[in-house]
Amino acid sequence: MKFLGIIPARGGSKGIPKKNIKLLKGKPLIAYTIETALNSKLDKVIVSTDCEEIAEVSKNYGVEVMMRTDILAQDKTPTLPVLQDVVSKLDEEYDAIMTLQPTSPLRTENHINESIKLFEINTSADSLVSVVEMPHNFSSEKLMKLEGMYLTGNSNVKRRQEVEIMYARNGAAIYITKCEKLNEYIFGGKILPYFMSKINSFDIDDMEDWEIVEKLIG
To answer: N or C terminus: fewer CB in 10 A for the chain?
Structure first.
C-alpha cells in the first residue's frame, strides 16, 4: 500500500499563540512531527497550512508544503475538507492517508511504522485510530457534574478492578483513512485501534500540557 502523510497546521491558535512554530526545547513544535514522518515508511509527507511562517519553518525541515485557502483555515473548519483539498491537488494516487497532528510531539517513527504495518495486514479495515487506555478515574461511571453547589452523578462505588476498561482517541496522534473512504470520513466503518502509552499520547492543548511535555522531553 502507498501511504500519504498529511500534517494539518493552521496558523491561528488561541490557547498558545503561534503554537505550531513555538520553540519546544529549542525546536519548533511542528518539527517533531515533520522529522518523525520523514524518517518513517510513509511514501510522501505534506504540510497543509494557511500561514507563511509555518510554511517557511516546515520547508526548512525538508517537507513539502501545500498552502490552503482562508476558507479552510477558520476556527471551526474540520480536518476532513483539508485532507480532501490536499489529495485533490496531487497527481499521484495513494491507498491510504495518515493524518498527523503537529501537537503530538512524543509520537515516534516506530508508532507510524507499526500502524502502517497493522493497517496493511488488516485488509478489511476502513480506518485506524491511535488510542490510549483511559485512567480508571475518568470512566463514565465516575464522572460527575456540578449543579449549583453540589455534585450529581453515579453514587455507586466500584473498586478499580471492577471498572470497565475504556479507550480514548489520543489527541489525533495517528489517523489512517483508506482513500476510497475519504469522501465520507477521517475515521469510520471498520476502525482498527492502534494502542499507545499515556506518555506518547500527550497532545499539547494549553500551557500546562506544554510544560509537562517539556519535562518529558528532558
So the answer is: C
CA contacts within 13 A on the Cβ side of 60:
12
Query: Rounded distance, CA 194 to CA 188, Å?
Result: 14
Give CA–CA dist 31/27, Å, rounded.
Answer: 7
Total number of residues shown for the chain: 218
Write down the pTM of the prediction. Answer: 0.88
Phi then psi dihedrals of residue 29, to 5 deg: -50, -45
Start-to-end C-alpha separation, the chain: 36
What is the rounded radius of gyration, in angstroms, for the C-alpha atoms of the chain?
Answer: 19
| Domains within the chain, CATH numbers bracketed | 3-132+166-217 (3.90.550.10)
Query: Residue 46, SS3?
Result: strand
pLDDT tens for 30-54 read: 999 999 999 999 999 999 999 999 9
Cell of 119: 493497517
Task: Specify the DSSP class assigned to residue 39.
Answer: T
Q: Identify the three-state secondary structure at position 65.
A: strand
> Residues 76-81: contacts with CB within 8 Å, 24+ apart?
77/10, 79/8, 79/172, 79/186, 80/182, 80/185, 80/186
